[in-house]
Amino acid sequence: MNQTHSEVLPSEVSSSNMNKYEQSVAQFSWDEIERHFTWYETGKVNMAYEAIDRHVAEGRGEKTALLYSDASRDEAISFAQLKEQSDKFGNILRKYGIGKGERVFIFMPRSPELYVSLLGILKVGAVVGPLFEAFMETAVKDRLEDSGAVALVTTPALLSRVKRDELPELKHIFVVGENTPEDEGIIDFFSAMEGASSDLEIEWLDREDGLIMHYTSGSTGRPKGVYHVQNAMIQHYYTGKVVLDLREDDIYWCTADPGWVTGTSYGIFAPWLNGATNVIRGGRFSPQDWYGTLAKYKVTIWYSAPTAFRMLMGAGSDLISQYDLSNLRHVLSVGEPLNPEVVRWGYKAYKQRIHDTWWMTETGAQLICNYPSMAIKPGSMGRPLPGITAAILDDQGREVAPYTMGNLAIKTTWPSMMRQVWNNPAKYEEYFRIPGWYVSGDSAYMDEEGYFWFQGRIDDVINSSGERIGPFEVESKLVEHPAVAEAGVIGKPDVTRGEIIKAFISLREGYEPTQELKDEIYRFVKEGLSAHAAPREIEFKDKLPKTRSGKIMRRVLKAWELDLPTGDLSTIED
Ligand code: 6R9
Fold first, then answer.
1. 507-524 pLDDT tens trace
2. Counting atoms of ligand 1 from 1, which one is nearest the CA of 262?
3. Nearest atom of ligand 1 to the alpha carbon of 457
4. How far are the Cα atoms of 319, 337, 471, 503, 537 from residue 488, in angstroms, in the given order?
5. Range 464-573: architecture per CATH
6. Which residue from 158, 350, 357, 493 lies 20 to 30 Å from 27 (Cα-Cα)?
7. pLDDT in tens, 450-462
């Protein structure tokens, strides 16, 4: 392996919440964390109560829960106001007979009403399903149909993408906005809210009752409905405390949309279970708006993704000096491997160590992380949290030696683990093909100090002249080249070598796509990494295909290259 294992950004935080747990990894028990929740006394629970109402009941109602802004709105909403609004929406849902266990979906851009609706849905014990606003007709229909959703919250603009005549189970559509069409089954959100009572008896649930469904795409087949239960809150709360390092006065900003699991587990549940003030920004990415948001709200903890950090890196360091980012004390990343170059840049540009975290829709919450009290090795996603056992296994389920690439697997089970793939028990079982382990589908290796190093999705690993090459390593080297903004690497079949490396590259401003540049980039990887990892073919692209959560879609690159079907594209960015 050519990744640098000796480079270390030392731990700076000696007073983090994690210390207590780290020191007691041996005695770690989830029970201790569970004691935070009232089910210890009552046996019953509800996420919306624990995230919002509890803070009002304990005298923190006036505290700001949500700081929302987009191009046209700028609002501060307290825990008490969120409680009142979501109680009202809960009452509206009840009036239409919607309750425990039923699926209610949300299909709209970020706005305070999205968060109010989501909490209201949880309060009546329904299971919420958030969808990306960018979904088109078929993607929306597939998900509503598969889940058997009985109701949907959406906006007038998106309503035309909902094929109501093909969705017999979908009885009620709540429309948030002006000029709601008058039609059977359509309810105007704002007028309903005006008339609604804010006196609501919450639906008390068991720990194993439903919470949320996120649809996630595999490379083949239909998207999978990953189903989570109330019990996940134990881990949302715990990781919020020890990985996000949330404390009493933090202003926290998670940049993810609730259509992605990061936007719910860490954009809603973790911060509010910990009583933090949560910043939500609507609208699209722009470096100016993002730095503006950090400065305006004096954000202290910032959770984002590699694709965003790479774009900010591309926007340059000069821009940063125009904003006061001095309140930032903790920065985290998720979704894709975090290139070492980005970590080095963040350390210089923000004077912050960017903490990579690894987890999946299926795992519900973080599992392998760089937490504040540990030294960071740039390029590594960190170590398993206390309470989590991770390993690299071969296909027979045997643990492999350090530095050997294999299946990243997690010993079952943990509180936020998915409980089913909706309507598809066979898919669910596939994750457990090695007894006692959850097999992630990622390929990685571990070093002697127990740090995990991501290599790629198993399907993406390249075999060139008998060498196994993780695409991430090559991509990380590529983005170190000054001309390269982003890179996606695939294996391309080759008669002599089995596969060769092909790189798709988008260039930074001011660089021309020439043959000389290709040659130079090839040499750059050959000399900096190794000959077998150097891309023998390079293709320049204006943009790389990415998911809504910013993942480079290597299977799409591969499909283009080999003229194969691209599979499910519903989550691709436009
Ligand atoms: C939370 C989330 C899961 C897949 C996962 C892996 C990739 C996520 C990563 C990472 C390298 C990290 N991934 N975090 N790869 N380093 N820190 O992203 O969920 O959208 O379901 O994706 O994302 O391949 O298997 P999800």
1. 998 999 999 999 999 999
2. 1
3. 24
4. 27, 12, 8, 6, 12
5. 2-Layer Sandwich (3.30)
6. 357
7. 999 999 888 888 8
